[in-house]
Amino acid sequence: MNKFVTHIIRFVVFVLVQALILNHLEFGWGILIMVYPLFIFLLPNDLKITFSLIIAFAMGFAIDLLSDTFGIHASALVVFAYLKPLVFARFAKQDNYENLKEANIYTMGTSWFIYTFGILLFFHHLWFFLFEIANFGEIIYIFQKTVLSLIVSFLFSVGLQIIFVPKPKER
Amino acid sequence: MKNLIAFLRRFQIFLLFVGLQFIALATYFSSLSFPRSQYLTTSNKVTGNIMAARNSVTHFLHQEETNRELIKANKILHEKIPENYIRISSNEIIVRDTIRETDTIYEQQYTYIPATVLKSTYDKRNNYMTLNIGRKQGIKKGMGVFSESGVVGTVYQVSDHFSLVKTILSMNPNIDIMLVEDGSFGFLKWETHQARLANLTGISNDKPIKKWGKVMTRGGGGIFPRGLNVGKVYRVSPIEGRALWNVEILLGTNFKKVQKVYVIKNLLKGEQIQLESNIPKDPDNE
């Protein structure tokens, strides 16, 4: 029950931070910080994929409503949630990764985290900008936006975890 | 039937994925081609109010600058007043500086409704702006919007208390604009992806174009009055293989800071459209 409330509060905070603050920070060069995929990433691994898809859709749509993007945040986040178990399994160090209650930078270890989260975030960003621009004539612009935003979003997500996720005690 | 159920069970995650994608992308693409539903934007009641709350927190950060701009704008608008009127009598000569609003010789064509920007972007492929006025204040779809320093965009969707503006930083703003210097005209486009620069297309390259020449609206379509500032010529380069210049314009409006805008109401728009509808259609083009 306690965990459940934590995730609901996280959901609201992520949506508001993304829609009211981060979507308004515009640095030029097409950089857009998108940090909300971290919420889906931090969902417990034993949660059914069906649920995490629906949660992803709801979260993306909430952000869309607040930033006039009509469904691309939702679409990209559903891609993220769908690929999450696949990418997790591909880069898993141990087979029983589903026993990992909550995946974050500490419980996973740095290198595993960088691979999985980096790749998932890359697909999310690529999908988002592909549909936001929706014009293959501007493919270079799409890649520019994807790569630059990816770097900033990734560092931002790592920073958030370092600040807010409590470090487990050394054994 | 058994097989079908087994199939559905096996692929239920994938099917759910496809279904959610379909809903999201269908919403997105239908909004691009025909904007029907206002409920999915910041101009609806709930999200509009969230945006208004957000604005009440952030707007004071720009207060001083906004004030300065407004004083400047007032001065410019006062000087411009005669431009907003059309003469309805032809046998009298009137000194333009002395015109008042109640004068019977001139009839007012454009009125302006002031509005506050609640939310705006400039870094996306299509950039929108939410205003704090809507249908109850007389805003209608398709009206022009400008700030003190230049053209901003056109109204895209309206709800009772809010409206959504598609800014000129979008795929095809297609506003009729011209060079002040020689009156040659073209369409406004945004292909630079930079918040301060836009393009003027359709200028033939038989004449050189002066840098920093002024660019303003031409007044076609009855959306913007003639002579509204757009910006200045920033860079001129030839387009390969075509007898046209690629003209880049430094926009007057700074979309990173714009706080106060005006929505343009054209009182004679119906008349202009009715007259223009009499142009016979070219049989070759049909």
What does this structure look like?
The complex is a heterodimer of chains A (171) and B (286). By secondary structure, chain A is an all-alpha fold. Chain A has helices at residues 2-21, 37-42, 49-67, 72-91, 105-108, 110-133, 139-164. Chain A has one domain. In chain A, helix 3 runs antiparallel to helix 4, helix 4 runs antiparallel to helix 6 (110-133) and helix 6 (110-133) crosses helix 7. The two termini of chain A are 27 Å apart. The mean pLDDT of chain A is 83. Chain B has 286 residues and is an alpha+beta fold. In chain B, the strands form 3 sheets. Chain B has a 6-stranded antiparallel β-barrel. The chains are: A mainly alpha (171), B alpha+beta (286).
Compute the number of strand runs of chain A: 0
> What amount of the residues of chain B lies in strands?
25-35%
Continuous helix count of chain A: 7
Question: What would you call the shape of chain A?
Answer: globular
Helical content of chain A (DSSP H or I, runs of 4+): 55-70%
Spell out the blueprint of helices and strands.
The complex is a heterodimer of chains A (171) and B (286).
Chain A (H helix, E strand, L loop, with lengths): L1 H20 L15 H6 L6 H19 L4 H20 L13 H4 L1 H24 L5 H26 L7
Chain B lengths: L1 H9 L1 H22 L11 H14 L4 H18 L4 E3 L18 E3 L1 E11 L7 E4 L12 E4 L2 E9 L4 E5 L8 E4 L5 E5 L7 E8 L9 E4 L11 E10 L5 E8 L8 E7 L2 H8 L10
Antiparallel strand pairs in B: 1-2, 3-4, 3-14, 4-7, 5-6, 5-14, 6-7, 8-9, 8-11, 9-10, 10-13, 11-12, 12-13
Task: Summarize, please.
The complex is a heterodimer of chains A (171) and B (286). By secondary structure, chain A is mainly alpha-helical.
